């Protein structure tokens, strides 16, 4: 029974964080461009903070992908 639902669980474990990561990066990038257009002199400081936020948003997706692939290959549930 659990082996029938394992591919669905792995797909959801990868798809939901991917969608959240894409939305988060899109919103952060839009705000970064808006702030850079309003205050161009702060663009280098904002760029550093943008890349930090983008890295943190992507890390959740990468960790969820790793866990999902581990579930798919190792099958930790009996």
TrEMBL record:
The chain crosses the membrane at residues 6-29, 50-72. InterPro entries: ATP_synth_csu_bac/chlpt, ATP_synth_F0_csu_DDCD_BS, ATP_synth_F0_csu_sf, ATPase_proteolipid_c-like_dom, F/V-ATP_Csub_sf. It is found in: Membrane. It comes from Ottowia pentelensis. Pfam families: ATP-synt_C. Residues 8-70 form the V-ATPase proteolipid subunit C-like domain. The gene is atpE. Belongs to the ATPase C chain family. It is a multi-pass membrane protein. Signal peptide: none annotated. This is Lipid-binding protein. It comes from the Bacteria. Keywords: ATP synthesis, CF(0), Hydrogen ion transport, Ion transport, Lipid-binding, Membrane, Transmembrane, Transmembrane helix, Transport.
């Amino acid at each position: 029974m659990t082996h029938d639902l394992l591919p669905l669980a792995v797909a959801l474990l990868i798809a939901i964080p991917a969608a959240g990561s894409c939305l988060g990066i899109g919103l952060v990038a839009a705000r970064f461009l808006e702030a850079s257009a309003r205050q161009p002199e702060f663009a280098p400081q904002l760029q550093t903070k943008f890349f930090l936020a983008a890295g943190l948003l992507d890390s959740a997706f990468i960790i969820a992908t790793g866990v999902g692939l581990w579930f798919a290959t190792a099958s930790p549930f009996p």
